[in-house]
Write the structure tokens for this entry.
Amino acid sequence: MLDIFADLVGDSGAVVDIGCGPGRITGYLHAAGLRVSGIDLSPEMIRLARRDLPQIGFEVGSMERLELADASLAGIVAWYSIIHTPPERVPAVFAEFARVLRPGGQLLLAFQSPTEPVSVQRFDHKVTTGYRWSADAVAEVLDANGFRTTARLSREARTGENSENSPQGAVLAERL
């Protein structure tokens, strides 16, 4: 999904990895040729990202209030970044993503999926409360907040994957 995202965005503009942590995905996208930077709520994660990837810009910030101009981005990746956002706040987060993406801009989300047949499932994560989303539920919220879903991926957890053995999901969407 990251490679598909990179192909779709190409050299069309700036990309931000929101909730970038120490920059693992940001570095991958940079190596794929994207003009990417990272934003994370944790100053410690940003410190680590800056230390390990000094060629990439990283800033402390919140996905709920991005300090970016309207329609300024060609793409956003939020790789496992929405899992701690309470479900009632996710529509506003997606609306904020839509605000900073230009029409036709690409959004790629990855998340843990429910272990039961529900849309959203609360779970105790090692950091704080987490929420698992079905790909269909994420797509529904995106489609109601300025996006058109273009691809969905659901898969089982891989052996040794740090995911509490939960299925995994990803959704690719285009800003309307």
The chain has one domain: 2-175. The mean pLDDT is 94. Residues 106 and 174 are 5 Å apart (CA to CA).
